[in-house]
């Protein structure tokens, strides 16, 4: 694989605004018809002016788009894309609740957040007749538990959460979450956890033998106290900022996502990835249309563009992520199709859990623990 694959840091330095001068053209591929303004939950119709119709604002995770992808979409549709980045579902949700839903036409929430956003009436139900390529999805993604019938979302990618570590720097490699505690002195200030309450609390719970999704008060308290004991060894809580540090040798272990592990190991083969033996999270990131999206037609055009098998396969070869699109998967190189970090075995998947949505009271409880953990 080429070491030219851009890192999150490199991507973030490439401002989406710099793409404003992209040439517009047409290639004749039909991206989908004009969606009906009427949806079945009485959502208000948003007036879209000619400027809005030619622009698409996307709110997503880093490394899910790149300049080539945006340029190709603009060439096919004439729609200019502007991308904003978030690093946690909770940060995204807070922005949506503060009115950001009227700014973006495509958002990439994780599975458990889809149900929460639908409950808060932040999403438009999808018109399946406007989407081309749903039949290309692997069967398990066609009727997901978090969004039955793909009513509000379509899957974009999936993966696991685990530990990225420098195999040349550690005396013994990590194999489970508890490794972080038992090797705390060795890892002091050379370890990062995600800036994500559900993932971090999930790891704390799992390290004690509890479910990643436990809401039992005693178990949550135990996980919080366990994490407090680990806190002195942490360099930081960060979802993205560990990459430069681990490549520079300033970190030895980072909690991260599977696709991040593959791209960073391309720059340093000593960096390896493990899904903890006791289990971890199995997540799906999706594409949704906000209830008050300013460019609904452009949103459907983007979804249909991303369902083109060759578009997705080319993007995966550049950015490395697992696809739920069978047709795109079949176009991947054998090296990627057989990569256990991107496409883990069933034995690994069986010990992982999807993150489940929380009630409002449970969200508040997690938030209180998170604030306390970060401040101790």
Automatic annotation (TrEMBL):
Gene3D superfamilies: Periplasmic binding protein-like II (3.40.190.10). It is found in: Periplasm. CDD domains: PBP2_PotD_PotF_like (cd13590). GO terms for biological process: polyamine transport. It holds the Pfam family SBP_bac_8. It comes from Oscillatoria acuminata PCC 6304. The keyword Transport applies. This is Spermidine/putrescine-binding periplasmic protein. The keyword NADP does not apply. Spermidine binds at residues 112, 196-199.
